[in-house]
UniProtKB/TrEMBL annotation:
<comment type="function">
    <text>Required for maturation of urease via the functional incorporation of the urease nickel metallocenter.</text>
</comment>
<dbReference type="GO" id="GO:0005737">
    <property type="term" value="C:cytoplasm"/>
</dbReference>
<comment type="subunit">
    <text>UreD, UreF and UreG form a complex that acts as a GTP-hydrolysis-dependent molecular chaperone, activating the urease apoprotein by helping to assemble the nickel containing metallocenter of UreC. The UreE protein probably delivers the nickel.</text>
</comment>
<keyword id="KW-0143">Chaperone</keyword>
<dbReference type="Pfam" id="PF01774">
    <property type="entry name" value="UreD"/>
</dbReference>
<dbReference type="GO" id="GO:0016151">
    <property type="term" value="F:nickel cation binding"/>
</dbReference>
<keyword id="KW-0963">Cytoplasm</keyword>
<comment type="similarity">
    <text>Belongs to the UreD family.</text>
</comment>
<dbReference type="InterPro" id="IPR002669">
    <property type="entry name" value="UreD"/>
</dbReference>
<protein>
    <recommendedName>
        <fullName>Urease accessory protein UreD</fullName>
    </recommendedName>
</protein>
<keyword id="KW-0996">Nickel insertion</keyword>
């Protein structure tokens, strides 16, 4: 752990966390999708591009990793992913990301996604794991051109490594989906504090993990909401799915008793959606 990361995990009120922005750009070239640009400063790290789908050799798969052991107090990390016209890419993480104890200022994780015309992008990070005292703000912005197909997930679960039931501090999440002209198609925002999340009267009931699946594209090309719900229910999650506003696509919400069950539910939906949008069976991703 770097000295800065170590300081960011402490309780000093004047801590300034890390500021870093990573950028990945996928483009089509030579009959395949290639990673044409990668700017991945610490704590980001990426593997080489893998070809995991023999029936779709043009599809690039990439693992995104963290070199620091998680998100620390007052960090502000940004990830920008672009799939240029005609590109097809699948980006995932190697494991869940731990969010450590925070302070008055939130730890921030921003994601900006741009999907070009006739491109396909799947971005499916493992759930964020909120430790006691974590104060996290997550913001996701998506821009999709005509003909673009996208599969996006996010999820959070709370965990007390001491074996107790201490809650995180606060969680804020926002989503903005727009077209290339800047017209906003979908906008939402939610906030909840940890004690309310974990309380017996929690709006999540007895569930302690929450996830979202977003599918962008023509609704007639997407799985039926009832099919998505059945897939998640089959692995022990409580799910609801419905069309997004302005014909943007489809959204699904999942509640689960814990992070492991949430991951299983999201994986089930990703497999179904991936087959539908990419036209091939998703490869087994070793983690």
């Amino acid at each position: 752990m770097s000295s800065l990361a170590a300081r960011a995990s402490g309780d000093s009120p004047d801590v300034v966390g890390r500021r870093a922005e990573a950028r990945l750009v996928f483009a089509r070239g030579g009959g395949a999708t290639v990673l044409t640009r990668q700017h991945v400063p610490y704590p980001f790290h990426v593997t080489r591009v893998f070809r995991l789908h023999p029936e779709a050799p043009d599809l690039a798969s990439l693992y995104l990793q963290s070199a620091s052991g998680g998100l620390y107090r007052s960090d502000h990390l940004t990830l920008a992913i672009e799939a240029r016209p005609g590109a097809r890419a699948f980006v995932t993480t190697q494991a869940g990301t731990v969010v450590h104890r925070g302070g008055p200022l939130p730890t921030r994780q921003d994601t900006r996604v741009r999907v070009g015309a006739d491109a396909f992008l799947a971005y499916t990070p493992d759930p964020l794991i909120l430790f006691p005292g974590a104060n996290l703000s997550v913001a996701t912005e998506v821009e999709a051109e005509p003909g673009a197909l996208a599969l996006l997930t996010e999820g959070v679960a709370c965990h007390d490594p001491s074996g107790g039931s201490l809650p995180f501090d606060r969680l804020s999440m926002s989503l903005r989906i727009a077209d290339p002209s800047g017209r906003v198609l979908v906008r939402e925002r939610s906030e909840i504090d940890g004690p309310a999340f974990s309380d017996s009267a929690s709006p999540l009931g007895g569930h302690r993990a929450y996830g979202t699946l977003i599918l962008l594209g023509p609704v007639d090309l997407l799985p039926a909401p009832r099919v998505l719900q059945a897939e998640a229910d089959a692995v022990g999650c409580l799910a609801g799915a419905s069309p997004l506003p302005n014909g943007a696509g489809l959204g699904a919400r999942l509640l689960a008793p814990d992070g492991g069950r949430l991951s299983a539910g999201l994986d089930a939906l990703v497999r179904l959606a991936f087959r539908t949008l990419s036209g091939c069976e998703p490869a087994r991703r070793r983690k």
